[in-house]
Amino acid sequence: MEKKVEEAELNFLNATPQFEISPEFFNIESLKIVKLYFCVVDLPPLLKGSAFLKTLVLKKSVIVTPTFINTIFKHCMLLEYLDITQSRGLNELKILAENLKKFKVLKIGDCPNLVEIEIVSLTLRSFHYCGNLIGDQSLELLPAEGCVVQYLA
């Protein structure tokens, strides 16, 4: 915190048990880019220091819940890029980003329990989804003008 770190990439591939990120981690005001791999994140309900967060990457075993997503989009008003990959805890994804003026890129990949995606964003320009549709589901997107949509099943 004292060093005013702007970018943090934490990979705990071989940690047993899974490494837990302290809720205080997201209160580091200088962080602009956060990349977390193979860890458990417990967000506090109020993120004091994440106002300047621009990029968030959550991969492999980071448990992403609807509450987690709501907290991120409520407090990280400068968020531009979100990447969620291989999160088994994600079953529905509702992104309500109508208040975010800079949110441009969303990547969702290989989340096997994901059954529903709802995105409300006026600024989203690129949406990448890699995964399977479950049952009789279909993927319906109404992208904003100029938005690039990539779907890989």
TrEMBL record:
Coiled coil: none annotated. InterPro entries: At1g61320/At1g61330-like, LRR_At1g61320_AtMIF1, LRR_dom_sf. Signal peptide: none annotated. It comes from the Eukaryota. It comes from Dipteronia sinensis. Residues 28-133 form the At1g61320/AtMIF1 LRR domain. SUPFAM superfamilies: RNI-like. This is At1g61320/AtMIF1 LRR domain-containing protein.
